[in-house]
Structures are given as structure tokens and as C-alpha cells.
Amino acid sequence: MKKLFLTGIGFFLAMSLTFAQQATPEESASKIVTELVTKLTLNEEQKAAASAIILDQEKAISTIVQDSNTTAEVKKESIGKVQSESDSKIAQLLTDEQKAAFVKYIQERPAISIPVTQETTEQKESGNEQGNQQP
Question: What is the predicted pLDDT for the residue at 121?
């Protein structure tokens, strides 16, 4: 009985850690802006403008990721477009010295990963089954 109880508690702790990793667009934007302020030494005006741009970007990315009707490739392409638009808007706010640091930041930033959902996995499996069937 003790083992069953401890297993149940472990399961719930693992699930809570899984859900804790999903950040809201506001939290993601805040982290990105903090990183930009640190790496680019943004002034208050630049920080405010970048915050609005990044928040819009993160909301758009969240919408794209949650769309269950599109494939991972389409999502990656859409996210790339949103990021490049945001990057160009932010670059317009920066001085020449900051632009050089921003280009380095863009090159070093990790690519956004598309979380695999159950629906995406099922679509892939059904697509593989259809592809494996020969007439």
C-alpha cells in the first residue's frame, strides 16, 4: 500500500513539473526582454518598444503552436516569419553598436521547438499507415 501511495505522489509531482514548464507569452516575452536588455544595454525607450514587439511576437507564436490543424513544418515556417519580422522591428530601434550585438544574439539564439502533441503524433501515424498501404 505504501509503494502504491508513493508511486501516486511521484506521478503527480512529475505531472506538475511537466505543466510548470509551459510558460505564458507574457512570461516568455519578459525573459527575452531581460536578456536583450542585458546583452544590448537597451535604454528605457528601447526597452519599452522592444517589450511591445516581443510580447506581440510571443502571442503570435503561441497561437501558431496551439493550432492543431497545421503541420510542424508549416508551424516552423510561420514562426520563422514572425521572428524575422520582430527582429527587423527591433533592429530599427538599435544603435549601430547594438545592431552588431543583436546580430550575434540572433545567431546564437536557439531555434524554437514545436512541442509534439498527441494529435500531431496521431496525424503522423495515420499518415504513415496510409502511405504504407499499397493499392
Answer: 46
Q: Which residue has the cell 545592431?
A: 99
> Tens of pLDDT along 74-104?
999 999 999 999 999 999 999 999 999 999 9
C-alpha cell at 72: 510542424
63 pLDDT more than 80:
yes
Residue 32 CB neighbour total at 10 angstroms = 19
CB 63 within 8 A of CB 96: no
Query: Using CA atoms in the order 88, 90, 94, 100, what is the torsion angle rounded to 10 degrees?
Result: -60
Cell of 43: 535604454
Do 40 and 101 touch, CB atoms closer than 8 A?
Answer: yes
Give whole-number Cα distances, 96 to 5, 99, 101, in Å: 60, 5, 9
